[in-house]
Amino acid sequence: MSETIEKKETKETKLLEVIKEALFLDEDLPPQIPLITIQGKTILTSGNFMVISGLPKSFKTSWAFIILASALTKKTMFGIDVALPPHPNNSAMLFDTEQSIYDFTRQVKTLKFLIKQKKLPKNFNAYLFRKYEPDVILNSIYLLVKEQRPKLIILDNLTELVINPNDMLESKRVIQFLKLITAEFDCGIICLLHLAKSNLMSLGNLGSYADRGSQSVLKVTLDKETHSTTLEASMMRSDSFFNPIAIMFDQEAKTFVETTAITDKPKSSRKFILMELSEEEHWNRLGIIFTDNREVIYGELVEEVKKIYGVGTNIAKQQIIPYLHGNKFMTSERGVYKANYYKNKTKKK
Q1: pLDDT averaged over the chain?
Q2: CATH architecture, range 274-348
């Protein structure tokens, strides 16, 4: 009995510490200097993470290395500026979970060309985790960040940090991990993430959670006719959108050069077809929408559906919400919506 009481008191003590730390204090804070800006727009600040998404082979890693080159040289690269603070917190770190050592070495050659160095600088370290399981990678990242305290971290690719990117609990755990280390170690993280080929949306529940938690979401697209790759903003939480940047690799110069973004060419956007989504995909999206709040008013529901389904206001209001309501995915009373997901969950228990 006394042992049970002691455990309860220990738990309450820990909760009180959390509550004390979580309490907002109404104090003036010094202005925050952005870690990354593009064309003067704030992209990433310390304590946050951002996402660079795109289809496979769209040059996401190349854009990440251009950002890294700006950090290491303190120079503007295609309108991108990275401001690492003075020593000792001026280091950058990259964790690669996909490439072989040979492919990564080829990427590093381009990086060294960009920074005009024969050897990588001492304030940058890269780790290749391709052969390891997600738990090993996550624990290794935490240990390395704790010991070395880098200011800027690149995770290439976020998908490899989970077994199943559609698993809600596993995906949520990874996003909480990003929030933890950015807050605990006052750093910024660039996450690279694949888009699904079927609907050009961020891959699985992991992608949806990452988009919701990011300070910025940037999209990379490849034009196969011109062999140019374009970086543009999909979501900006702290600033307005920047103008798209297009670059291509110059074979003679052996480096990337800026080119004109093709604006007169019609974009090949895939039409949203509601009936192509399976019942499981709808439940997964609803699970994300109602994760933090079991009741959502109509206006908030519209905005969440737009984010999670990647659609506009009209499709959210006229197609998706009526479909979900009519097919008993959700119930509503006086403009307040609840997901039957939780009712089903309760019944199972």
Answers
A1: 86
A2: Orthogonal Bundle (1.10)
